[in-house]
TrEMBL record:
Protein name per its UniProtKB record: alpha-L-rhamnosidase
Gene Ontology BP terms: carbohydrate metabolic process
Residue ranges of domain Alpha-L-rhamnosidase concanavalin-like in the record: 312-429
InterPro entries in alphabetical order: 6-hairpin_glycosidase_sf, 6hp_glycosidase-like_sf, Alpha_rhamnosid, Bac_rhamnosid6H, Bac_rhamnosid_C, Bac_rhamnosid_N, Rhamnosid_concanavalin
Keyword Plastid recorded: no
GO molecular function, one term: alpha-L-rhamnosidase activity
Keyword Hydrolase recorded: yes
Keyword annotations of the record: Hydrolase
EC number: 3.2.1.40
Domain of life: Bacteria
Domain (Alpha-L-rhamnosidase six-hairpin glycosidase) ranges: 436-766
Annotated SUPFAM superfamilies: Six-hairpin glycosidases (SSF48208)
Protein's organism: Pectobacterium polaris
The Bacterial alpha-L-rhamnosidase N-terminal domain, residue ranges: 129-298
Length: 874
């Protein structure tokens, strides 16, 4: 396995250094690496040792060129492996073309009216045989690219969303096989996306057009064609043409209105009787062009209907059996001008009418409190529902969403009868994150919880790690709470790197980090100057920490450090009394004071100060990672000062902290503030038991508690909690395949929200026993420590790191527990922990050490081991 910049295929690079990682099934002693351009070696290096990562920046890249990395790995004896991986460059963001558009200027007043989208084309001749052709392109907000009638993009909802005035991500395609000698046609279909949002006042006050980098849909592109006699470039300029498209309205929240009478077949860019006009030159956003490096948004699983409820001759309700985020795909036979309305929802009322409250964009139209209905502003719909409106042509009409996505289990189809519906399915659509972990055990319910966490996470990643369909924003707090569980389920190297860039792009002028990135205006209980609350600002240092721990790119730490120091300078402008109020605390806790959700979180001031303390602790770690000893010592002293202040302010006489809530105990233990950790843990467990095994912590407390229970061998507490009727069983109600935003009645909550899915990390690390330790760099230090819960008969668990795949499988038989472990070679260290209650039978290195409870074995470079554990008689 060889990866370039964490990627295995379709790799496009626009700058050095390259970050390489690989793995082999033996102990590496040396390697030789070569960079090839047109099969000619342009750079080579050889190194001794077993390091399987490398930063490569000792050669220059040429634009629009294909390269190969070839590596020969050597081990002892006859062990030798060769690996080769191709990558290409693009135009390095130096576009010869200019931004072009249809020249439409969308005003707030007319946004909700019919406003057809733009289709842009260029017809040209190729007189030479084509050796290679590539196209670099940005289409804002979203785009589809066609060459000679063939779709090129193969992905959905492009372009990657960020602050376009800071960064503009462009895509590069190898289009050699789509061009031909003679006349060719390039067609680009544009949608509004995030670049041309509605003037909808989310939550009654946030108009995205006032905050985001916005404009009218436009495109910039270079098509480079290399023939047998030379090279030429076709770039976007005033010679291109545009016409109006078939989408008479499209919005990321509110849906699409499509007129089937305007296009042929199912290709909405193939307009009937188009009126072509010359394009207008646009200014475009101000951001730096950067080659897109995250996985693209793709169509995934299709879900058929589980039930069709016929309301009457002109209305159907389709139930797909589970909530998905994505597209509808339907085929129907209709008459000319027939109008069909599709309305989407996550829930229905008992009488089977739609309840769309949980998906209303920014609560617009929802009664959030008695007599309080959120208004979306002038001309906005009364209820900001997810709607698609179709004006049909005579005959067969096939519709698939293109410039929006919906979160839904149910869709109401108004305007056709059941006989006219030929086919319908829901299509899951999300950023195509590769799974890097798997978990199965003997308990079907726990397996279902892992699947539900996976589905809910994927439902909410569309080039940003968003919260839910009602908002679709990347909240720093949610990302922190889920960071650890995310990296055990999905390869998150690139999406985390982009997320860090997103937050850097929107750092406030005072150095504070926003609550969301891209920043959309929300700053509840922030630290001033549009900066977010402390727990949400933690996203910058914490995600840097997780990325370094799991993926090992020290260059990223260097890049983040100046912003992290500036962030701390911003925070230090406030005294601790002020800072401790600048947070939302342990969001989602059931111990919250419901009369004031913004400031009613348990132990709010204590938890906020702990977040501040953690900021500084992580700064110490980063300074040490890049050998800045004096700075590390400086921040370490500062951290000790804050720690002492926390003890003075919040420690009670009995050793507890703050309000003695579950959250306060969790934070005191997690940040090792309690004098007697075991006593604090006992008090916490007693509190949970008194609450009928219910964990009442919010998103941070739960995430931390899974770590605590695993570390201190209290895994039974988690098993009881996951099975508690008032916990996830009540939330899921026996049928849901996605998590809700809140436990209990989920008032004003989403039904497709991942913020409480952090339990999946415990499945991998606790039951599965696979942990990347906190001091690891690029997953080079691993702990294997499975917990053997009495009610579980077997566990099969795996996790793919940049160093290779780890497997830990155990099952009970008549003689004891059979444990099979496979680890990659060339780790810095791998330790197996077995409780002293077990006798170990089988080939295993002598234990390194023992304590009162456990025995520890160094299994670094062992490869695969099979042992039997039997209960000790003493």
């Amino acid at each position: 396995m060889l990866k370039i910049n964490y990627q295995e295929e379709n790799i496009v690079v626009d700058r050095c250094p390259l970050f390489l990682s690989w793995s082999v099934d033996y102990r590496q002693t040396s390697f030789t690496l070569s960079v090839l351009k047109d099969e000619t070696v342009i750079y080579t290096t050889s190194r001794a040792g077993n390091d399987t990562t490398l930063h490569l920046d000792s050669f220059a890249l040429a634009c629009n060129t294909q390269y190969a990395i070839e590596i020969f790995v050597y081990g002892e004896g006859d062990n030798r492996t060769s690996m080769k991986k191709m990558f290409s460059t693009s135009n390095f963001g130096q576009f010869k073309g200019c931004w072009i558009s249809g020249g439409k200027k969308t005003s707030d007043d007319s946004y909700y009216l019919e406003n057809r989208n733009t289709v842009i084309r260029k017809t040209f001749d190729v007189v030479d045989d084509i050796a290679m052709a590539c196209m670099s392109i940005v289409g804002l907000g979203f785009y589809k690219l066609y060459i000679n009638g063939n779709e090129i993009t193969g992905s959905e909802l492009n372009t990657d969303w960020t602050n376009y005035n800071k960064t503009v991500y462009y895509d590069t395609y190898d289009v050699s096989s789509f061009l031909r000698k003679g006349t060719n046609n390039v067609t680009i279909e544009l949608g509004n996306g995030w670049f041309n949002p509605a003037p909808l006042k989310l939550f009654g006050k946030y108009n995205l057009r006032d905050v985001l980098s916005v404009g009218d849909p436009q495109v910039i592109a270079d098509l480079v064609i290399k023939g047998t006699t030379g090279e030429f470039t076709i770039s976007t300029d005033e010679s291109w043409e545009f016409c109006e498209g078939a989408y008479v309205f499209n919005n990321i929240y509110l849906g699409e209105r499509v007129d089937f009478r305007l296009f042929r077949g199912s290709n909405t860019s193939d307009i009937i009787n188009p009126v072509w006009k010359k394009v207008l030159i646009s200014h475009g956003p101000k951001g730096e062009f950067v080659s897109s490096f995250i996985p693209k948004i793709k169509q995934a699983a299709a879900v058929g209907s589980s039930h069709i409820y016929v309301v009457d001759e002109n209305e159907l309700i389709i139930d797909f059996g589970k909530i998905i985020a994505g597209f509808i795909n339907l085929t129907m036979t209709a008459s000319e001008n027939q109008q069909v309305l599709l309305t989407y929802s996550e829930e229905v009322y008992e009488n089977y009418t739609l309840n769309s409250d949980s998906t209303l964009a920014g609560f617009v139209g929802k009664e959030v409190a008695h007599g309080v209905i959120i208004d979306g502003g002038p001309e906005a719909p009364h209820r900001a529902e997810q709607l698609d409106t179709l004006t049909c042509r005579s005959g067969v009409n096939h519709f698939v969403n293109q410039f929006t996505y919906h979160s839904f289990r149910y869709v109401r189809i108004s305007g056709i009868n059941l006989d006219q519906l030929n086919h319908i399915c829901a299509v899951s659509v999300h950023t195509d994150l590769a799974e890097c972990g798997g978990f199965r055990c003997s308990d079907p319910y726990l397996n279902q919880l892992v699947d539900i966490a996976r589905e809910t996470k994927l439902n909410n990643v569309h080039s940003v790690l968003s919260d839910c369909a009602r908002e679709r924003f990347a909240y720093g707090g949610d990302i922190v709470a889920l960071a650890k569980s995310q990296v055990y389920q999905f390869d998150s190297a690139t999406i985390y790197e982009k997320t860090l860039v997103d937050f850097i792009n929107d750092i406030r002028p005072n150095g504070g980090v926003p609550e969301t990135a891209p920043f959309m205006g929300i700053k509840t209980n922030g630290t001033g100057g549009d900066a977010g609350p402390l727990g949400w600002q933690l996203v910058l240092p914490y995600l840097t920490h997780i990325h370094y721990q799991h993926y090992g790119n020290v260059k990223l730490v260097y890049e983040m450090l100046p912003f992290l120091e500036r962030q701390l300078e911003h925070l230090e402008r406030l005294n601790l009394d002020e800072l401790s109020a600048c947070c939302l605390g342990d969001w989602g806790s059931r111990d919250v004071n419901t009369a004031n959700y913004k400031s009613g979180s348990p132990a709010l001031h204590f938890t906020a100060t702990c977040f501040y303390y953690y900021h500084i602790i992580l700064l110490v770690k980063f300074c040490r990672a890049v050998n800045l000893k004096e700075k590390a010592d400086f921040y370490s002293n500062k951290a000790n000062e804050i720690r002492n202040e926390i003890l003075t302010r919040y420690k009670n006489e009995d050793g507890s902290f703050a309000d003695k809530s579950q959250t306060s105990y969790v934070f005191a233990i997690y940040f090792t503030l309690a004098d007697d950790i075991q006593a604090a843990l006992t008090s916490l467990l007693n509190l949970i038991a008194a609450d009928n095994d219910n964990i009442k912590c919010g998103i941070f407390g739960q995430s931390f508690l899974y770590e605590i229970c695993r570390q201190y061998d209290q895994n039974d507490v988690i098993v009881k909690w996951l099975s508690a009727d008032e916990g996830f069983k009540g939330m899921l109600n026996g049928e849901s395949m996605t998590l809700k935003e809140f436990f209990g009645d989920n008032k004003n909550g989403s039904c497709n929200h991942a913020m409480f899915s952090s339990y999946s990390s415990w499945m991998y690390q606790g039951l599965g026993g696979i942990s990347v330790t906190d001091d690891a760099v690029g997953s080079d230090v691993i702990s294997i420590n499975p917990c053997f819960i009495d009610s579980i008969e077997f566990v099969d668990c795996w996790h793919q790191t940049i160093r290779g795949r780890i497997n830990c499988n155990w099952r009970r038989d008549g003689n004891g527990i059979e444990l099979v472990i496979k680890i990659p070679y060339n780790l810095k260290k791998c330790t197996l922990t077995i409780a002293k209650a077990y006798t170990v039978l089988g080939e295993l290195p002598a234990s390194m050490k023992c304590d009162s409870f456990n025995q520890y074995f160094d299994i670094t470079n062992v490869g695969e081991i099979k042992i039997l554990l039997t209960r000790s008689l003493h």
